[in-house]
Design a protein that fits this description.
By secondary structure, this protein is α/β, with parallel strands linked by helices. 42% of the residues lie in helices and 16% in strands.
Length: 238
């Protein structure tokens, strides 16, 4: 099966998702951008099209029941098909154990795990019908190790890796490939940081384009390969 140059990217309004969408645009892909902030999606859509691609926007909250399904349906309607699904939407709350709040636990698992499951559940029948597809789940380096104050966030990324492993085994007979991409520190507005980072962080941290490059490699891999995981560390680990 020849993979179509169509992708649906969640969490596409900024940061890593924006970087992935623009990379696809630079390669002439058609992309459906999904996130909550429509005004940001409008800007990213323009950037994708200026880069050489075609963009559609679907503003929604993926933590609400029915919305992941609607996003997938919208992408199929607009593009004719989805070749690659990139589950990038995510968030983090960082608290010491005695301070962990029930709502913090719930909101992180709802977006980082449940929403990914819901989009995959929705796109799989489409992939099976058309003979295959590629799923890319954007995790984190903390999906391999725990960090202080990040027990809930880290556990959502471990959970996503577990889903990734199970989906790989279940779906490969249908030519549906599933890959987990776990980046280290990337300059984004994640966890309230300034988009683009501080001048000090810019000296050593990765940028969204680094992750986008890895995702594009996965999305364009050969027909007989199946990339399982990509772990991306910063070069200077001092």
């Amino acid at each position: 099966m020849i993979m179509s140059k169509t992708a649906l990217v969640t969490g596409a309004s900024s940061g890593i998702g924006r970087g992935i969408a623009i990379k696809f645009g630079q390669e002439g892909w058609e992309v459906t951008l999904v996130a909550r902030r429509k005004e940001n999606l409008d800007v990213v859509a323009k950037e994708v099209e200026e880069a050489g691609g075609k963009a559609h926007i679907f503003a929604t909250d993926l933590t609400k029941e029915g919305n992941p399904e609607s996003a997938i349906e919208f992408g199929i309607e607009k593009m004719g098909q989805i070749g690659t699904l990139v589950n990038n939407a995510g968030m983090g709350r960082f608290e010491m154990v005695p301070d962990i709040k029930d709502e913090s636990f719930q909101e992180q698992f709802q977006l980082n795990v449940w929403a990914c499951m819901a989009t995959v559940r929705s796109v799989v029948p489409h992939f099976k019908k058309k003979g295959g597809g590629q799923i890319v789940n954007i995790g984190s380096i903390v999906g391999y190790l725990g960090i202080s104050k990040g027990s809930i966030y880290s556990s959502t990324k471990w959970a996503l890796r577990g889903l990734n492993e199970s989906w790989r085994e279940e779906l490969y007979p249908d030519n549906i490939k599933v890959c987990y991409v776990g980046p280290g520190f990337v300059l984004t507005e994640f966890n309230g940081r300034k988009e683009g980072g501080t001048s000090e962080e810019q000296e050593w941290a990765m940028v969204p384009g680094d992750v986008a490059h890895a995702v594009y490699c996965v999305a364009t891999q050969g027909p007989n390969s199946d990339i399982k995981e990509i772990s991306i560390q910063v070069l200077d680990r001092s």
